[in-house]
């Protein structure tokens, strides 16, 4: 076989491989995007908006989050830990009536601590913690983002006084969904808890029905 023929065959094979790779990427692309959209829900739309409508850039960011945090193993909570977190959340909700900002600050602190206890990035690494939470609790992280934004202090140590009570109330209510996701036993813990009798309902569940009315009472007092 002549050298020219060998070179021609190599070129042909290279072209065929390149075409196959392009076709594979095109075939996988929409499905990959659809999977990310389904997995991240509102976080997908938020990422696209942050990238000025560039879906490819948004999908690269979300895919990187999955690569970094997708294999994270959620740690179980001890029953005493769960009761402590539930009691603290209930106390924060009740405190909202008279001190809404302090309640939101406590909610922000509490979610960060609880997420750390479950194995998510901690030690003040808010952005990384939020990214990890978005991989596993994509439909509920916006509440955490909102309470953190309200609770965050300025460089001079003050808060944004323009944040209204209604905005803080909405942030608190929305953040509660993530709190309940994090404090809830995981699948393998569920059987253990059922075997123990699950004698008492979580404090968040007990308080869940009265909390909105308490927050609305605060709003009514101000109107």
Report on this model:
- The chain crosses the membrane at residues 6-25.
- This is Secreted protein.
- The chain is mainly alpha-helical.
- The chain folds into two domains: 3-69, no CATH class; 79-222, no CATH class.
- It has helices spanning 3-40, 42-50, 55-69, 79-95, 100-117, 126-136, 141-151, 165-183, 187-195, 203-208, 211-222.
- Helix 1 crosses helix 2 (42-50), helix 5 (100-117) packs across helix 7 and helix 5 (100-117) packs parallel to helix 8.
- The longest helix has 38 residues, at 3-40.
- It is elongated and about 90 Å long.
- It starts with a helix and ends with a helix.
- Residues 25-30, 191-214 and 216-223 have low confidence and may be disordered.
Beta strands, count: 0
Quickly count the domains. Answer: 2
Strand content: under 5%
The level of helicity is over 70%
Major sheet attributes: none
Secondary-structure element string: HHHHHHHHHHH
- Report how far the terminal alpha carbons are from each other: 92 Å
What radius of gyration results from the CA coordinates?
24 Å
Low-confidence stretches: 25-30, 191-214, 216-223
**SSE-based structural type:** mainly alpha
Number of helices: 11
Shape: elongated
> What number is the mean pLDDT?
80
């Amino acid at each position: 076989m002549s050298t020219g023929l060998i070179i021609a065959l190599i070129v042909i094979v290279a072209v065929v491989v390149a075409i196959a790779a392009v076709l594979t990427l095109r075939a996988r692309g929409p499905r990959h995007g659809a999977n990310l959209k389904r997995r991240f829900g509102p976080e997908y739309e938020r990422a696209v908006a942050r990238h000025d409508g560039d879906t490819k850039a948004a999908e690269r960011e979300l895919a990187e989050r999955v690569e970094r945090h997708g294999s994270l193993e959620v740690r179980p909570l001890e029953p005493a830990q769960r009761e402590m977190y539930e009691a603290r959340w209930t106390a924060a909700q009740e405190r909202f009536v008279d001190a809404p900002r302090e309640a939101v600050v406590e909610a922000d602190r509490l979610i960060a601590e609880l997420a750390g206890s479950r194995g998510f990035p901690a030690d003040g690494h808010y952005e990384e913690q939020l990214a990890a939470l978005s991989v596993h609790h994509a439909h509920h992280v916006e509440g955490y983002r909102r309470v953190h934004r309200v609770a965050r202090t300025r460089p001079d140590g003050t808060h944004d006084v323009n944040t209204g009570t209604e905005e803080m109330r909405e942030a608190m209510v929305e953040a509660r969904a993530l709190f309940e996701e994090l404090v809830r036993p995981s699948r393998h813990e569920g059987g253990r808890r059922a075997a123990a009798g699950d004698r008492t309902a979580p404090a968040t569940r007990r308080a869940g029905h009265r909390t909105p009315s308490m927050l609305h009472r605060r709003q009514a007092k101000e109107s």
